[in-house]
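Protocol step 4 of 6: record predicted structures for both targets in the notebook before any analysis. Target 1:
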Amino acid sequence: MAVWRRIMGWWGLILFTAAMTVSCGLVTPQPTTILAPAVATDCRQVSHDWGETEICGQPQKIAVFGFHNLGLLLSLGVQPAGFAMDADLLGEEVFEDPVRQIPYLGDRLTTQPLNLGGSGRPSLEKLTIMAPDLILGHGGNAQSYDLLTQIAPTLLVSSPGFKDQWQDNLRAIAQVLGKEDQAEALIAAQAAKVVETRAALADAVKAHPKLLMIGSTSLEDRMFTIGPDSYLGKLVESVGFELVSPPTPFSTVGSPVSLEILPELDEADSIILLGYNRDVKALTEASQDDFADQSPADWLENHQIQPIQASWRESAIAQTLTANKENRVYFVTYARWGLLNNPIGAELVLSQLQQFFLEAS
């Protein structure tokens, strides 16, 4: 029971931390690759935003930081030896139950990677003991880049919040792993999935083209819109939707909004609310008894969207909006829609878009 409670608390803190950092096609998971031993004479220089990294042979023991990078690595069919998440609440040395401990990606893990702590500040001690052949980090690790390079060759990729950024990051990681052709195949497959989804949703989009996407824990809390130059905005516009933005958008990536401004956005035919829940205590205290009639994954997903659902129902302003009156308001988790910006995440978003709008039509 204690381990289960730690798992649940880990979930809650991950999803909240991920949601608070937002301001910055169908892809079938590939078979797990067993990488060949590194050959010291097979070395090349790989350029990235923080410098150049010398890679010798094909790395076998990879430490990966964050959801985004983990999804990219798994989509290439490579398993991590160590993983650092957004917060280290688990307290275990390894991810012994990744399906429950790592949302949406854990079922693709065939190993139990070493828990390296938080992705922004991973444990240098654990990394040193692990002695990886490669560290895959992100822009949040820039300040510790020099220290990381003393442990192992380190590749840092840019923030994945902008459109097309995941494709660039995938190509960079694929170059390190010698999987360039596989990366291009993944990008092509995702583009084909977009075309397929656009065709499937053509009638629904024609009838209700304008879409508003808002992320928040509740309408009384901090809210932000999703803009067209973000990863998610680009994805939904690529299947035909037109994103609705505030009259004076803060940026093309997204803008903070208040409850009072929602009537000014009433041109939206449909609304998608990306929810997250800061109630870590409820997650920590959850037990197997809570899942009598649903899977743990379904319970966790419901728990993340319950606050925004409740505040939406209780808001007199929200109830006046056209999309609400016509039953075209949909609730999703920020973790699924805004954090998994990689081929696996795009698959999940496109599938749920079809579920919403094909069922509605």
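Target 2:
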Amino acid sequence: MFNRDTWREIFDTLNKNKLRTFLSGFTVALGILIFVGLVGMTNGLQNTFEYYFSQDATNILYLFPGRTTKPYKGYKSQRRIEFENDDLKDIRENFAMFIDYVSPMIQRGALVKYREESNNYTTIGVDWGQQFAEKTIMMKGRYINQEDVKNKTRYAVIGRLVEQDLFGSKNAMGKYIDVGNSVFKVIGVFQDEGGDREERQIFIPYTTRQLIEKNTDKVDRIVVGFKPELGYVGAMALQRNLNKFLKDKKFISPEDQNGIFIRNIADQLKQNQDFAKVLMVIAALVAFGTIIAGIIGISNIMVYVVKERTKEIGIRKAIGATPRNVISNILLESIFITTLSGFSGMIAGIAFLSSLGDKLMDDYFILNPGINTGLAISATIVLIFFGSLAGYVPAKRAAQIKPIEALNDE
């Protein structure tokens, strides 16, 4: 039950001992603030991983040709490996059960013109599946399709910023642009969550790019989109099988690690997720240690408080105060300080994290740091509980002291 006299006494005590009150509250508030900050920053780092991997599909294998370092089956070392169109066909036929699409990539820089406007952009020769690998979002028109690839059409799908640079406020659809002295018709405009660099790219049929380059059949690299249901284990098995298949086909030693490179997005995602989990565990341990430190701090301060008020407690007991009265007064004071300071530290921590947003993204790769409100409140309540317990133990011990011994205490 609320007792005005008890609370007036508590406030008088706090007012008379401002430094002691401040130190008690500061210990609790700092503990919660550090806890919220650590957990929030770790969550921000995890948000960064998710952001980067959400820009493109994760069920992707990127195949890159390299240069051999070992002689094999009559072939010398330092042989440059090249991918060709029949490699695309062989992968499709031999791994049809496991893949959704195979898309080559032939990347070139080119000066692109439209009337008086011009700029340098990256052009990429692709097949239809590249749209899903890049998670390309079509704003207008359509993407490159199988008919475009088959017929080697001079069609181009341009990024949002390419349209903005060359056409201004005009619609680029159906217009003709000069791409490296070859004329292409714009059939689509796309946007990409990857940012400005991706939106200043131009996609054309890879067969058209090969035709322009004297009808070659070479490709720079190959993108393989595998079925998502394969999962991580299936993706790793597919990577090993593809690597073996291509090494056998290109006469590369099985021990040669430089002949072919495979970038497995699923594997990278798993590694980053594991790294984030380790960081979460470390942050949780440090945060838990911070809470323990806060509890120890408030416990030490409460022991000092009770020791300092020993004579006062003796006088109270001499004039009729019961042990319960003594304990409740000290306990209420402890609960009040820890509750007020704990929630102040929690609110300050949450507000600080909310104010950061993406400010730490460029320098520290931390995006939108934050903490679950329920977790923050739970941690605060735990600290309040143990802080109260820290006040109860010395208060109970003081309440058991006989009045004459308390009055003689030095």
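Step 5 preliminary note on target 2. The longest helix spans residues 265-308. The longest strand covers residues 99-114.
Proceed to step 6 after PI sign-off.
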